Known about the structure:
- By secondary structure, the protein is of the alpha/beta class.
- 27% of the residues lie in helices and 23% in strands.
- The protein folds into 2 domains: 1-45; 50-290, Purple Acid Phosphatase, chain A, domain 2 (4-Layer Sandwich).
- The chain starts with a helix and ends with a strand.
Amino acid sequence: xxxxxxxxxxxxxxxxxxxxxxxxxxxxxxxxxxxxxxxxxxxxxxxxxxxxxxxxxxxxxxxxxxxxxxxxxxxxxxxxxxxxxxxxxxxxxxxxxxxxxxxxxxxxxxxxxxxxxxxxxxxxxxxxxxxxxxxxxxxxxxxxxxxxxxxxxxxxxxxxxxxxxxxxxxxxxxxxxxxxxxxxxxxxxxxxxxxxxxxxxxxxxxxxxxxxxxxxxxxxxxxxxxxxxxxxxxxxxxxxxxxxxxxxxxxxxxxxxxxxxxxxxxxxxxxxxxxxxxxxxxxxxxxxxxxx
Length: 292
Ligand SMILES: [Fe+2]
């Protein structure tokens, strides 16, 4: 009799232990599935395709002859993360929108990946098809110093490389606008003291936080990249601060206005380091300038 009671107790204990084990197994399996789904979303779904962010930019300083002027702003391509097929689609979309001017604010490459001759040729083949009657202008990003020949490649793509330089752009009028480009503050030595005109001025920088150095230069429009919007963003919260790179701690979001300067930060077309995003589609920006 006693033996029977002992046996029953033992089997109950084993059953409970088994139940506990199977519960734990279910929890672990569910967690693994959730982690796998999150990874699939961030790596493949959130990075898939791209969107165009369109903005109307108004300034009384803009000459009448530039009213309605259209600018396509590409940034942070990080070629290794996207490949030729996607880059060709971006080029096609930009050309469909018929911009007057195209700017690129750096990070054509990625320092965490190789850059082969074949990749260089593919980049040139794609980007040289970008069309803009008033030209294409580029500055360097911090990653562009990790491989050789950035200036050569970007120029072969038909871009004017601006490194502490500016150009005046005329449009059938006497009053031009000025486009100014500074190289990466992380891997180069920008000269923020180059002399500038008093015209409507567009500044190109890679790292948004470099804006602090040109805050008093009376720019009307400053375009930058680098932050990738944090790559991984959370609903309501937005970017996760510690994930933002250096020099994108202050100016990391889409838009700022400081005195008379409007600042737009592109969240980029590619990804760096971990090829992931969340709630932050790859994108390029498209501006329409108006003078009233
Ligand atoms: Fe970047």
